[in-house]
Design a protein that fits this description.
The complex is a heterodimer of chains A (844) and B (427).
Chain A: E1 7-12, E2 15-20, H1 25-31, E3 55-58, E4 65-66, E5 77-79, H2 83-98, H3 114-122, E6 146-148, E7 153-156, H4 165-172, E8 179-182, E9 189-192, H5 205-209, E10 215-217, E11 230-235, E12 244-250, E13 253-259, H6 272-276, E14 291-294, E15 297-300, H7 303-321, E16 326-330, H8 336-349, E17 355-356, H9 371-376, E18 390-394, H10 398-401, H11 403-414, E19 419-424, E20 436-439, H12 445-458, H13 471-474, E21 475-476, H14 480-487, H15 491-503, E22 507-511, H16 513-516, H17 521-534, E23 541-545, H18 552-557, H19 566-576, H20 587-595, E24 601-605, H21 609-612, H22 616-624, E25 628-633, E26 645-648, E27 657-660, E28 666-669, H23 682-692, H24 701-712, E29 728-729, E30 741-746, H25 760-765, E31 771-773, H26 775-780, E32 788-792, E33 797-804, E34 813-816, E35 835-841
Parallel strand pairs in A: 1-5, 16-17, 16-24, 18-19, 18-22, 19-20, 21-29, 22-23, 24-25, 25-26, 30-34, 31-33
Antiparallel strand pairs in A: 1-2, 3-4, 3-5, 6-7, 7-10, 8-9, 11-12, 12-13, 14-15, 14-26, 27-28, 30-35, 31-34, 32-33, 32-35
Helix pairs in contact in A: 7-23, 8-23, 8-24, 12-14, 12-15, 12-17, 20-22
Chain B: H1 18-23, H2 28-36, H3 39-49, H4 61-66, E1 77-82, H5 91-98, H6 100-114, E2 118-123, H7 128-143, E3 159-164, H8 174-181, E4 205-209, H9 210-222, H10 224-228, E5 238-245, E6 251-256, H11 261-268, E7 278-282, H12 302-307, E8 316-321, H13 326-340, H14 346-363, H15 371-382, H16 390-404, H17 406-415
Helix pairs in contact in B: 2-6, 2-9, 3-6, 5-6, 5-7, 6-9, 13-14, 13-16, 14-15, 14-16, 15-16
The chains are: A alpha/beta (844), B alpha/beta (427).
Bound molecules: flavin mononucleotide (FMN), iron/sulfur cluster (3 copies) and FE2/S2 (inorganic) cluster.
Residues 53-57, 59, 81, 83-86, 169-170, 172-174, 207-209, 212, 388-390, 393 of chain B line the site of flavin mononucleotide.
């Protein structure tokens, strides 16, 4: 944007500078290395000019001007250091300090407080003020002025300098309205909205951007002085967004995690899971020693004994029955070295292709080359979302799956005016900013997509270079009206969306878990491929079949699946001088094989299939049949319970490594602390087993990394997206009238996978299972919040307290899976595209 | 001299009725504008009339309208500011209660001129009756097809709605008003962007005072020349002054601009209450600096009052008699401004609080040596340094009082008693 006509030249402190139009005086000064103090300015928020500390003098303007909110104008002459400026800033500091408690010794912000720093720099005191300082005290019996605003957030109003960053970020960036400003004048307070808690997924950012100690969180409070903590560069180990984190540690303990702003990814925001999720590292009930099953009991043992047993058993099974009888599941939240070592171990030592990182998807593909795989390998950049004027989110509860992508989408919509269309079987948080929030009948997505495609064609808005003449015969439904009938979405809305797609200049398509986890994944992918071709999205924008976990993309790139691409296999052969010929089994096939007693042993690292696999009975039956099960994890789990050998695994904070985020961006993280409680990182465990088997697969982590580099250099198959239209025929699902209500199993807003319930702060947001239903459904069932709901499917039954949703408005039930006491997957069946249940009130 | 143009029918109880209003020539101006004028011509006419904003700042109305970008694809809004909260001011209330259609018609013409199809009138929360009158007027205008779709068959559509505030002085400040109208907390916004560029819902918006808009139909009906023939060179037409304080006949009086203050106070207001001598005059609402008795002949127009060291403001003339202690006056005023500070910017938020503490201790005989200098310096640190003019409004009367009546303050501090009310001793 910095072309000639849009540049502005001005003078600041006697030096000229040229900046793009729209730059503020503060930003221009910063560029020149001129320091101007600020309190209420924030690089990602609209300026408000509230604190007034950033005064400068501008020639021809009689009054002091706030540099953060003053745009540079041609020929402006700015002075940032005159007596008048200094006097003005001093006066502001004096005003701020008159009622400030100055309790720095007991304030958690001490050492990283903007007020402390600016006061230090300006040598101001509050001694002209000879009244008692005003105190905000809610509870006069308490000696502290602290008020809890949410599960983690505590407010001390006396320290608040009313920069409004917290409320501004909450609204502008997160779209949350749970925090507000109350009262007026010098009694103005920041507080939770009446009857509400500050408990959004982004709440932890509020203490982080508070420039003083007015907002703090339970996590960090009163634990360490900031100057005694060391900072470690890390990357979040939960979702695939890949936020950059700083872990703050002292001795061998982590005390907090904060954002290490990366504008390409997170822009300085992180979700609460990334902020508090590190707590699993120092959690109390970590596994502390290897366990070996003796009789019916797991008893403690040593690493040597455990590794010896594993090596012996795996060798025995491989020699007797072949490596195909051993399966491996590994969590995609592990580092590249561990994923790679796992694959190399299975393939070159056990001679088995049975490796998979996808342990909670139904009915995975059985060969390489599916449309889904191709779509998933397309380029996607989080920052490029901003280039789009239309964002289409299909089958994703975006805030839960990708909290940071969600923020970028929000920004693009609310700041740059893009339109957002969401297509989901139930309402999500994105509804508030959607141009149209399309909630279709569960199980009819391909019909809806066909409808959009035919609408594009009939409105002559399809990409001009695509031959659509046959589309009618390839699609069922193939009219907008029949699509409308099947999906429950009116023809006008389908046509309007098609029109918007046709007219948009740049489109971001985001495809989420609803499609990826579906047994009809391939059909849906073909439908989506058709849509991207017909709407020309492949040529005007980006397509993101977004990967889910911190290193899912890495696992895909390293081929930690039974059917890697031929190019990858070629490279593996070249590095290893070997590649097994046998057919590999995907995660669900391994379980089936086990159930049929065609698989003898399984090695599971960091995963918990009995809990995660969307058919609980099936997973349990299969895994219980194994002769020999090895599970490495941080905590006891539903799956470790069944294991013959349990190994304590280190969390990502305890070793150094690399993740590849959903964009394909490789990011390194350092070790914050040593492996805790006698645990080991996965690559180390694998290394020890191979040594014990006399087949060492690496001598050093460098060697692993070098080999990883070679594999990562393998390009995905050219022109990954299939540019041919494919057949998409919707067939109506038979719905039993008894079990008609769609069930969706998701992660709780503040949880991710099976570990986070052990993080104290995250447990404070929610540690009890619940079933979410719409208000109308609650009324029909005559249920009040927290009353008990019976949920029955054809195969299972559970009882949960009900939560009446503020968002859901159709007949579905949504259950979070994160809490140990809810084996929700026993309600699921792996062959069903939509799990369906019946609901009834539990009378007491 | 008294000039009843806005007030022509103010004493006719039926003027609130749309038929009576029409029989007095009402909605003729709107019809004329819609049927025979282009928006630009309307703006020109208002510019030529010299009409200036009656909300306080006196900004030329036609010029404000012309700032609305012609090429913006966004919707535009017209907002009538009926928050009337400046202490001493009560003119808009009378117009709303007794001639609401004049305001509706003025709003409709202004909306047409700026290409707006949605107009709001923001009325302070305490104005329950005026709000009801406005609602009735709007409803009957809809009933007669003077609002809504295709008004006078011209193809022009306009919707109009009443919005009542929660009762905060700051919500009269135009940007805080817009926030409040949007459902946000009433807090001022930084400018630029000005409302003409990014106002309500970030769309081009004109905010005008009730009296400003009520003057518009008169200008259209009688012509810009007619309006401009009244008043002075820079202050045209007539203006309503709200007279209060120690006078015999307080009330709202409509005067030709440039009429001497003494005419208002002595001839119309009947002079000082018996037993009172004139001590000071606040000429334009509680935030304007005081005038002294020797300035009583100052003409009531923007430039003359400014030359006398004060401001015409909203036209609320508060007359203060000699038995009044200026420390007490200032204590009352700073109490108000401290209470009404929206809390957004540091100098006003913290400064008004501190000023109140200092002034009230002086008022109560607990002042300390150095307090006046401290007040001077705090005022300097607020004046011209805030987001909105409330900060200035809070300190202007204080600065003025400390300049003109410093001895009264000093006396409170030195003697722990009042110079004026000598019978009163502090404990
Ligand atoms: C603190 C404060 C309070 C104000 N209150 C009012 C008010 O009650 N009514 C009003 O018309 N203008 C008020 N104003 C002025 C408005 O901001 C704005 O200038 C005016 O409505 C513009 O209309 P006009 O151009 O017709 O005068 C106030 C300004 C400030 C700073
Ligand atoms: S709580 Fe912190 S961030 Fe919020 S307004 Fe106060 S000082 Fe600013
Ligand atoms: S879970 Fe995802 S969004 Fe949250 S901090 Fe981690 S990487 Fe970022
Ligand atoms: S000057 Fe006062 S009222 Fe105006 S924005 Fe600042 S704090 Fe609010
Ligand atoms: S940083 Fe500029 S006003 Fe606060």
């Amino acid at each position: 944007m910095a072309d000639g006509g849009n540049n502005i030249t001005l003078t600041i402190d006697g030096r000229e500078i040229t900046v793009p139009k729209g730059t503020t005086v503060l930003e221009a000064a910063k560029k020149m290395g001129i320091e101007i103090p600020t309190f209420c300015w924030h690089p990602k928020l609209k300026p408000v000019g509230a604190c007034r500390i950033c005064y400068v003098e501008i020639e021809k303007m009689p009054k002091l001007q706030v540099s953060c909110a003053t745009e540079c104008m041609p020929g402006m002459v700015v002075h940032t250091d005159t007596e008048k400026v200094k006097q003005g800033r001093k006066a502001i500091l004096e005003f701020i300090l008159i009622n400030h408690p100055l309790d720095c010794p007991t304030c958690d912000k001490g050492g990283e407080c903007d007020l402390q720093d600016n006061t230090f720099a300006h040598g101001i005191d509050d001694s002209r003020f000879d009244f008692n300082k005003y105190r905000f005290i809610k509870d006069r019996k308490s000696t502290f002025d602290d008020v809890r605003l949410g599960p983690e957030i505590i407010r001390n109003q006396n320290r608040c300098i009313l920069c409004y960053k917290c409320v501004r970020a909450n609204k502008e960036i997160f779209g949350e309205y749970d925090l507000g400003v109350f009262q007026r004048g010098n009694l103005t307070e920041i507080d939770a909205a009446p009857g509400q808690q500050v408990d959004s997924l982004y709440s932890g950012n509020l203490p982080e951007i508070c420039p003083v100690g007015a907002l703090t969180n339970t996590d960090w409070r009163y634990k360490v002085r900031v100057w005694k903590a060391q900072q470690v560069k890390s990357i979040c180990g939960y979702c695939a967004d890949g936020c950059n984190l700083t872990l703050w540690k002292r001795r061998d303990k982590i005390f907090r995690s904060s954002s290490r702003r990366n504008d390409e990814i997170d822009e300085g925001w992180i979700c609460d899971i990334g902020r508090y999720g590190y707590q699993i590292a120092n959690a109390e009930n970590r596994l502390t020693t290897p366990l070996i099953k003796k009789g019916n009991k797991q008893v403690t043992s040593t690493w040597d004994e455990a590794i010896g047993l594993i090596a012996r058993k795996f060798k025995e099974i491989k020699d007797k029955k072949g490596g195909v009888c051993i399966g491996g599941m590994i969590s995609p939240t592990l580092d590249l070295a561990s994923l790679y070592a796992f694959s190399k171990y299975f393939r070159t030592v056990l001679h088995s292709n049975n490796v998979d990182f996808r342990n909670d998807y139904k009915m995975l593909a059985e060969k390489y080359g599916d449309t889904f795989g191709k779509m998933a390998s397309l380029e996607f950049k989080i920052a490029d979302i901003e280039k789009s004027d239309l964002i289409l989110v299909i089958g994703s509860n975006l805030i839960k799956e990708h909290p940071i992508v969600n923020l970028r989408v929000r920004k693009t919509v609310t700041k740059f005016g893009a339109s957002l269309y969401t297509l989901n079987p139930f309402a999500t948080k994105s509804g508030d900013i959607s141009t149209d929030e399309i909630i279709f009948n569960a199980g009819t997505l391909e019909a809806l997509i066909n409808g959009i495609c035919v609408s594009l064609i009939s409105q002559k808005l399809n990409a001009s270079d695509v031959d659509v003449s046959n589309f009618g015969s390839m699609a069922n439904p193939n009219t907008v009206s029949s699509a409308s009938k099947i999906t429950g979405i009116s023809e006008e809305r389908i046509n309007a969306l098609a029109m918007a797609l046709g007219k948009a200049k740049n489109i971001t398509l985001i495809v989420g878990e609803y499609i990826k986890a579906s047994p009809l994944r391939e059909l849906l992918s073909i439908a989506l491929n058709n849509l991207t071709i017909i709407a020309g999205i492949n040529k005007k924008g980006q397509i993101g079949f977004l990967y889910k976990s911190a290193n899912s993309k890495g696992a895909e790139k390293l081929g930690v699946i039974p059917y890697p691409s031929p190019n990858l296999i070629g490279k593996m052969k070249e590095i290893w001088k070997y590649y097994p010929d046998s057919n590999g089994l995907a995660a669900d096939r391994m379980i089936r094989a086990a159930k049929k007693e065609e698989m003898d042993a399984m090695f599971v690292i960091g995963a918990n299939p009995i809990w995660a696999y969307p058919d609980g009975q099936f997973a349990k039956d299969g895994i219980e049949k194994l002769d020999f099960l090895v599970v490495a994890d941080l905590f006891e789990s539903e799956t470790t319970e069944k294991a013959d050998v349990v190994l304590p695994l280190s969390s990502w904070a305890e070793y150094a490594g690399d993740f590849i985020n959903l964009e394909g961006r490789l990011q390194h993280f350092s070790a914050a602390i040593k492996p805790q409680n006698g645990s080991l990182p996965a690559f180390d465990i694998i290394g020890r087993i191979t040594v014990e088997m006399d087949k060492p697969i690496f001598e050093s982590v460098e060697q692993l990394n070098n080999e990883i580099k070679l594999l990562l250099a393998v390009l995905p198959e050219k022109a990954a997206q299939s540019l041919k239209l494919g057949e998409v025929k919707y067939s109506e699902e038979k719905i039993s009238p008894d079990f008609s209500i769609p069930l969706f199993v998701t992660d709780d807003l503040h949880h991710y996978g099976h570990h986070t319930k052990e993080a104290k702060s995250l447990a404070a947001f929610g540690s009890e299972p619940y079933a979410e239903i719409s208000p109308a459904m609650a009324e029909k069932l005559q249920l009040e919040n927290t009353e008990m709901l019976r949920i029955e499917s054809e195969v299972g039954k559970i009882i949960l307290p009900v939560r009446i949703s503020e968002i859901l408005d159709n007949n579905v039930v949504v259950i979070s899976r994160n809490f140990a006491t809810t084996p929700v997957n026993i309600l699921q069946m792996r062959k069903k595209r939509i799990d369906r249940v019946k609901l009834s009130k539990v009378e007491d | 001299m008294e000039k009843k143009i806005l007030f022509k029918y103010i004493d006719d109880p039926n003027q609130v009725d749309i038929d009576t209003y029409i029989s007095h020539g009402g909605y003729k101006a709107l019809e004329k504008v819609l049927k025979s004028m282009q928006p630009a011509q309307v703006i020109d006419e208002v510019k030529k009339s010299g009409l200036r904003g009656r909300g306080g700042a006196g900004f030329p109305a036609g010029m404000k309208w012309s700032f609305i970008p012609k090429d913006s694809p966004k919707p535009r809004y017209l907002v009538c500011n009926a928050d009337e909260s400046e202490p001493g001011t009560c003119k808009d209330r009378v117009l709303m209660e007794r001639d609401p259609h004049g305001i509706v018609e003025g709003m409709a013409i202004a909306a047409f001129a700026i290409g707006s199809h949605q107009a709001y009138i923001y009325i302070r929360g305490e104005f329950v009756y005026p709000a009801r009158m406005m609602e009735q007027a709007i409803a009957s205008a809809y009933g007669k097809g003077m609002l809504g779709k295709n008004i006078f068959g011209s193809g022009y559509d306009l919707d109009m709605a009443v919005h009542t505030g929660g009762g905060a002085y700051i919500c009269g400040e135009e940007t805080a008003l817009l926030n409040s109208l949007e459902g946000e907390r009433g807090m001022s916004r930084i400018r630029p962007p000005f409302p003409a560029i990014e106002g309500l819902y970030a769309c081009p918006t004109v905010v005008n005072n009730v009296e400003t808009l009520a003057s518009v139909p008169l200008i259209i009906n009688n012509g810009a020349e007619w309006y401009a023939s009244m008043g002075t060179e820079k202050s045209k037409g007539s203006k309503i002054f709200s007279l209060s304080g120690h006078v015999k006949r307080p009330g709202n009086y409509e005067l030709e601009m440039g009429t001497p203050l003494s005419y208002l106070i002595n001839d119309l207001g009947g002079g000082m209450l018996d037993g009172y001598q004139l001590k000071a005059i606040i000429p334009g609402g509680s935030s304007t600096p005081f005038l002294l008795p020797n300035q009583i002949d100052t003409p009531l127009d923007y430039e003359s009052i400014a030359a006398a060291g004060s401001m015409l403001g909203s036209g609320a003339v508060i007359v203060i008699g000699d038995k009044t202690c200026m420390v007490w006056v200032i204590d009352r005023l700073i109490h108000f401004y401290k209470h009404e500070s929206c809390g957004k910017c540091t100098p006003c938020r913290e400064g008004t609080g501190w000023l109140l503490q200092l002034i009230s201790r002086i008022e109560h005989g607990e002042g300390k040596p150095g307090d006046l200098e401290k007040i001077d310096s705090i005022c300097d640190n607020i004046f011209g340094r805030t987001i909105c003019p409330l900060g200035d409004a809070a300190v202007m009367p204080i600065q003025s009082a400390l300049k003109l009546f410093r001895d009264e303050f000093q006396y409170h501090i030195d003697h722990k008693k009042c110079l004026v009310k000598s019978e009163f001793e502090f404990k």
